[in-house]
Design brief:
The protein has 397 residues and is an alpha/beta fold. The chain is built from 16 helices and 14 strands. It has an 8-stranded mixed β-sheet, sandwiched between helices. Strands 11-10-9-12-13-14 form a 6-stranded parallel β-sheet, with helices on both faces. Helix 1 packs across helix 16, helix 9 crosses helix 14 and helix 12 packs across helix 15.
């Protein structure tokens, strides 16, 4: 099939979080399965930078077209794209596509693209956890709904939630708003299993190197100290302050906390809660990201809401790291699999769970890590996700 994906940001714009990784992972997997895949996106690399990638390139078998934003300041201050030539770029590809896949819902890119897509072309939407107006710029979302959402929603053939919960929420919103007769299903995110298949969970050399470079250069820290890891955008709704308070309350001798990821408004709030046992690294990629996962005793994400299905949590499981997740992460399977716990986003409850996780025996950590890896390989690889999407592309209406 010929598949056209529309997204505000695409690799290597990883500073925008899990959606970038999700769209890249799906596009690459579809291309690997023999589909012709084109992505039309903007030149946003971060809130303040334009992409260093070419405006037109083939990346891992995927054709990527990047349209310049007129204003980076609007992107930085309001998270608002200004790709004035976006519609023209879509018009060049819309007639070519057998199906168009929109990523996120309330975007300027969708509004510009839909005016160029032929009425007969099926349109699939992946909201990526952004539909609710209760989390993340709720007032702006409600205004967008009043002005533009109905025009976009009525063109959509199929809405794909990341979880059954998101699917049900989407269906409820469509009915309440009178947005037409879209179909609804759920397909999860995935990971590139090839990147993790040979990953050595808890690799002592990689873990010790990471701890030495990140901590020991600053403090007198043992390179094999137990480590609680958060990985992802540092946004208030991720529960970063809850994690910081819980780590302090747990007070495990020798333990360390690493907050890894680009700041998205949480660092100023959380720094007063941190002491010399904690570090904020900023965004890490490649070997440094892998080192953080190898060094981690536990991955914690006490998200408060609007999470969708966390890419970082799936990566931690694939790397063999036991997890502590809030119910908002929508990964209840980890408890049944024996790969982690679901804990309310409450400092005292999370502190108790962190204390247990950071003092867990190496053998128990290995057992839980193996269970997490098996869960991901069984359910959450991009190969499996792409195969599921092939079914909805073939029968979107």
């Amino acid at each position: 099939m010929k598949l056209l994906h529309i997204t505000p940001y695409y690799a290597p714009a990883y500073a925008f979080g899990g959606v970038t990784r999700a769209v890249e992972g799906l596009a690459r997997a579809l291309a690997a399965r023999g589909h012709a895949v084109t992505v039309i996106t903007t030149d946003a690399h971060s809130q303040t930078q334009r992409s260093p990638a070419p405006p037109d390139e083939t990346r891992d078998g995927v054709r990527v077209i990047r349209v310049p934003n007129r204003s980076l300041s609007l992107r930085g201050r309001l998270n608002l794209s200004t790709p004035t030539a976006f519609g023209r770029a879509v018009a060049d590809w819309a007639a070519w596509a057998d199906a168009v896949h929109l990523h996120e819902f309330r975007t300027v890119e969708n509004w510009l693209a839909l005016r160029e897509i032929p009425p007969s072309t099926p349109i699939i939407l992946s909201p990526h956890g952004t539909l609710s107006t209760d989390a993340g710029r709720g007032n702006a979302k409600r205004l967008w709904d009043v002005l533009l959402s109905a025009q976009i929603a009525r063109r959509i053939s199929l809405v794909v939630g990341l979880t059954e919960s998101e699917r049900a929420d989407a269906e409820s919103i469509w009915k309440a708003q009178g947005w037409g007769k879209a179909r609804f299903t759920s397909i999860p995110n995935g990971v590139n299993w090839a990147e993790f298949e040979a990953f050595a969970p808890g690799d002592p050399l990689k873990a010790a190197y990471w701890m030495k470079t990140q901590f020991c250069a600053r403090f007198d820290v043992s390179p094999d100290a137990p480590l609680a890891l958060y990985l992802g955008r540092l946004h208030p709704r991720k529960g970063i302050d809850v994690l910081a308070r819980a780590f302090s309350l747990a007070d495990v001798p020798g333990a360390r906390l690493a907050l890894v990821g680009p700041d998205d408004g949480a660092v100023r709030r959380v720094r007063p809660l941190l002491d010399e046992r904690a570090i904020v690294t900023g965004y890490l990629e490649g070997a440094l990201r892998g080192g953080a996962l190898a060094a981690a005793s536990v991955f914690a994400l006490p998200a408060l809401g609007g999470e969708g299905l966390s890419m970082a949590a799936l990566e931690a499981l694939a790397a063999g790291v036991p997890v502590l997740l809030s119910p908002a992460c929508h990964l209840s399977e980890v408890e049944a699999a024996g790969a982690g716990q679901i804990i309310p986003s409450d400092p005292e409850r999370l502190a108790e769970a962190l204390r247990a996780a950071l003092t867990r025996s190496p053998a128990e950590r290995v057992r839980m890590g193996a269970a997490g890896r098996a869960l991901v390989e069984r359910r959450f690889t991009w190969e499996r996700v792409a195969a599921a999407y092939e079914g909805v592309y073939d029968q979107p209406s």
